[in-house]
């Protein structure tokens, strides 16, 4: 396939994915957490007042709300604008998926499957339409992983700095962003041949920044999130794959294919530092919150680990491309694309386009009344 034809396919996928991240941007009214973000990020407030308002009602770090505050000061303080910013982050996720696929050029070109599944993933679309930090968290994770893969390809110092910088930004956006940062630190210290003293210094700098930030964050935190219910047994049967991929059946399909491919190509994955890290990162994303839940209380819900969707689909793509029988790999790719598209057209984002459901005008005055 020529590069021109390949890029034409990408543009089509990118346009479709972007369209559904914008088309129904105001279909739903704000829910309570979105009201908090809108209320906190009022650009008419000074930073001290914003900080005070944030600490009084919010439990996540202030980073996203500060970014939103300055965005509103540039483009206007109204409810629609904020969602356009989050939607923009979601659209960039599609581009990053394509760039990540490019780092695996020596394998079968699975970029079409990988990019389609990211572009039409209903969970990623949903949180590209919500005024909360999850789309930004997914984006910073994706860009960081992109530069991690680039670093493994050529070990340029700048790629190393960028991957840790983006991981640090993700950690400042949401506490679960710490998982990627700690995964990098553990991975590189287990593979010391990949780093030198200069790079260790950069790791130390980023670690100190995050430590200071969270020192003050926990000082001002009233309590650890208490509304999250205890994990039920059914969690261990699908690990949120039902939520990530749109239905119980699709979740099971993805889960079975994922575990089957990882088990079958275990030796190949262990030989690839890229694939090995992705597996380690996914395991850490589940294991660390579970350990915390066992010792203290549950803090694990599906949107907090939205960033695992990208490495899960990337590993499925990578492992499928290792199958020597190209007919079988094509069948797997085609099947997953088919059920992804099939599930997508049953969702509201598609049906509301066809049946032209009236969009809501977000009632932020009522939001303020609820908050106050």
Describe this structure in words.
With 372 residues, the chain is mainly α. The chain contains 20 helices and no strands. It has helices spanning 3-20, 32-40, 47-57, 63-75, 79-102, 111-119, 122-126, 134-154, 157-173, 178-190, 197-220, 235-238, 241-245, 248-264, 266-271, 273-295, 309-321, 326-344, 348-355, 364-371. The N and C termini lie far apart (59 Å). The mean pLDDT is 87.
In short:
With 372 residues, this protein is mainly alpha-helical. The protein has helices at 3-20, 32-40, 47-57, 63-75, 79-102, 111-119, 122-126, 134-154, 157-173, 178-190, 197-220, 235-238, 241-245, 248-264, 266-271, 273-295, 309-321, 326-344, 348-355, 364-371. The longest helix is centred in the N-terminal third of the chain and has 24 residues, at 79-102.
In percent, how much strand structure appears in the residues? under 5%
**Distance between termini?**
59 Å
Question: What is the overall silhouette?
Answer: globular
Low-confidence spans? none
**Radius of gyration over C-alpha positions, nearest whole angstrom:** 21 Å
Assembly annotation: single chain
Order of helices and strands: HHHHHHHHHHHHHHHHHHHH
- The number of strands is 0
**Can you summarize the main beta sheet?**
none
